Structures are given as C-alpha cells and as structure tokens.
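Q: Could you fold this chain for me?
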Amino acid sequence: MDTLTLVIILIILVLVVAFLAMAIRIANPWERAVVLFLGKFVGIRGPGLFIIIPVLNRIPYMIDLRVITTSFTAEQTLTKDTVPVNVDAVLFWQVINVEKAALEVKDYQGSISLASQTALRDVIGKTVLSDMLTGREAIDAELQRLIGSRVSRWGISILSVEIRDVIIPGALQDAMSMQAQAERERQARVILGDSERQIAEKFALAAKSYESNPTALHLRAMNMLYEGLKGGQSTIVIVPSTALNTMTLGDTTDGCAGKNDHVRKDQ
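A: Sure. Below is the predicted structure, expressed as structure tokens.
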C-alpha cells in the first residue's frame, strides 16, 4: 500500500470521526434540544443520546425544563394613594411546551422578566399602601394570574410569585410609626376608661346593697379599720366624726385599735 493510499485512508477516517462527532449529541435529563432541518422545525430531541445530520440539521436552543427562579423589581412606583415604593419580588416558573418557548418568542427568559416587571407596576398602581403591607397573599395571587395570562402562549407555566420586600420613604415610615403609637395610646385610654366604668358600676351595686343592709355596712367599715391597723406597726388613723356617724361605728372603734394605735375623732 503506497503512501498516497494511506493518506487518503487517514483523511477519510478523520472525516468520519469528525462527522460522527458533529452528528452525535447528548442532552441532559432536564434539557430538550430544538432541532431544525434546513431552517424548518422538525422536532424535539432528548434526553440522552441522539443523532443529527451535520450541516443540514441545526440546534438553535437547548431548553431547560427545571423550575427557574427570576428576581424582578419595581422602583419608585406610585401606589393608588400616590405613595412611591420600591418592591422586590421573585418569580418561580417552568417551561412546559418546548416548541412554543423556542418558536413563539425570541428570548423567553428576558421576556418573562419584562412581563413580570410590567405586571408588578400595574398591580402596585391599583393597590393602596396599607393593602400592600398587610395583604401580600392577595397581591401574589393577582401577580401570578396576570403574569401567567401573558406568558402562557409562550409555553411557560407560572408556579408562584412572592413579594419579598416593600420599601417606603423614610419620612413616611416615621409618620406611620407616630400614627401607630398614637393608636396604641388611644386604645390604652379606652381600656382604662372602660375599666373605670366597670369599677364605678360595681361600687354603685355595692352602695345599693349597703343602703338596704346597715349591718353589712358596719361590718365592712370594721374590716376596713382592721386592714388599716394590722401589720405590727404603730399607726394613727384620723377619722372625721361625720364619717363615724355615717358608718354607725359609735365608740366601737376604741376596741379595734392596737396596743400602740390611736383612733381620734376629728371634730
């Protein structure tokens, strides 16, 4: 076998190896290959090993079928009550139709990000600040519905949307803090006033009971004197005579004082 023949065989082997290297493709379990034949869509290949015809076939996209997380923001967006806010959110989405994702939109990932930002601005403009701070679940559901309706024709499924943070101006934060403090003080005063009303009602009921039962009033007065004198320390209790007459104690108070205690009528 002459040298020319060996060179030709080597060239043929190199071409065959190069052809096989270009023809054999491998797709990961989470990937799908979009295959074109002379510029026309012919199908989806993968996962695993598959073969294409070099030059005639082309793979413009390898589509990832895993759940993808995309962060997006809306800066200095006015709420319905004209409050500028910065909102950070995260989007969880997945490709469910590889053909639509490859053929219906040029850059489906960038398009999803822009569609999410637009939807977030629309929702913020229709929501008052208080609802945005306290009703995030409803806003998340509305965002998921709105974004899903825009990207469903691209073969994309929106799994969930979550608002991570709502940033409001510092001056407004101070005003809201003062408002919350004033509200807490108002509630405390209301509770205190209600307590005073309940105490007054109890005293009124007690007065009615004592009015019809002088003996009970006398015993209660004696108990009050005893509570004031007990404790082992010398105490002087000055009681006006009118109070003694009202409580019908008479001279019985002398027997209630301790050894070192004194009860004096103030005429």
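A (continued): The mean pLDDT is 82.
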